[in-house]
Amino acid sequence: MRAAFLAFLLLGCLSSNKKVTFDDAFSRAQAHDARKNTDEAIINFEIARDLNPARPEPYLNLSRIYLARGNSRRAFEYLVEGFEKPPAMPESALSDLFDLSTRPMMITVAMRKTTAVAGTRSFIDEGTRARVQAALKRHPNLLLAFADKLLDLSNVNDSFLLMKGFSCPPELRWRYLNLKVRESHLLGNEKAFDSFLAEILPLAYASHDTRRLYELGRICILQDEDDAALKLLQRARETVPPENTELLKSIEEALKHPERVLDNDGQHP
């Protein structure tokens, strides 16, 4: 609030001379930021934002400053607002959104959850969640990476909501179906699992994605799909890089002793 108020006062003074421009304010902000004068940088980025609210760059820079200060919530809010602007955000902003949205302290801010994450007490409103989803859906690769992270956290409900209605490009079909197989397994939806497994198997046999082949094989063991598990794990063994000895050992173990996968569900590289 202090920075916004100072920016308002400074903008009023500068505007009266009709000399300040977006580029002027933005350049000053970048110079202050480079010198670690973050208070001055925030003021000038705020001025630049007020001069041209449609430009996304000030939002990204403000987000990064607040993140560096440890204020993840404020950083997230600026970033989402920037994604709403008509011009495309810089490519680097995608990793910012992914990083902020998947932090343990921010996961409930990015997506609706029915239970609290440890250390998190408040949730963002549904409108902001929808804004994040809209931004992700314009970037299919990021959306799938985000869903992958959610499933790694066993956050299957939010993964389902994120991918609901998603129109997957053909070149990403393997990754999408792999996520849907994992998701339906975690949800215990046998009908959906069988459907997605039947769809992904023809793609799996030609895949070189060793880690996902291995994960899919393990899931098939847990689902008593022994024939599919054998073929998937054999394909994973064929594609594993020689230097990845740990993954190779895990694949060999699953092939020789599938019963141990049942005993160690959830414990794998």
Number of helices: 16
Q: What is the CATH topology of the domain at 173-269?
A: Serine Threonine Protein Phosphatase 5, Tetratricopeptide repeat
Helix and strand content put the structural class at mainly alpha
CATH class of the domain at 173-269: Mainly Alpha
Residue runs with pLDDT of under 50 for 5 or more positions: 112-124
Which architecture name of the domain at 173-269 does CATH use? Alpha Horseshoe
How would you state the average pLDDT, rounded? 83
CA gyration radius, whole angstroms: 23 Å
**Approximate strand percentage:** under 5%
> In which range does the helix fraction lie?
55-70%
Along the chain, the helix and strand elements come as HHHHHHHHHHHHHHHH
Mind describing the biggest β-sheet? Answer: none
Distance between the termini: 45 Å
Q: Would you report the number of β strands?
A: 0
Shape: elongated
Task: Write a structural description.
The chain is mainly alpha-helical and 269 residues long. It has a domain at 173-269: Serine Threonine Protein Phosphatase 5, Tetratricopeptide repeat. The chain is built from 16 helices and no strands. Helix 5 (72-83) crosses helix 6 and helix 11 (173-187) packs antiparallel against helix 12 (190-204). The model is unreliable at 112-124 (pLDDT under 50).
Structure summary:
With 269 residues, this protein is mostly helical. It has helices at residues 2-16, 22-34, 38-51, 57-68, 72-83, 93-101, 107-110, 126-137, 140-152, 156-163, 173-187, 190-204, 210-222, 226-239, 245-256, 258-263.
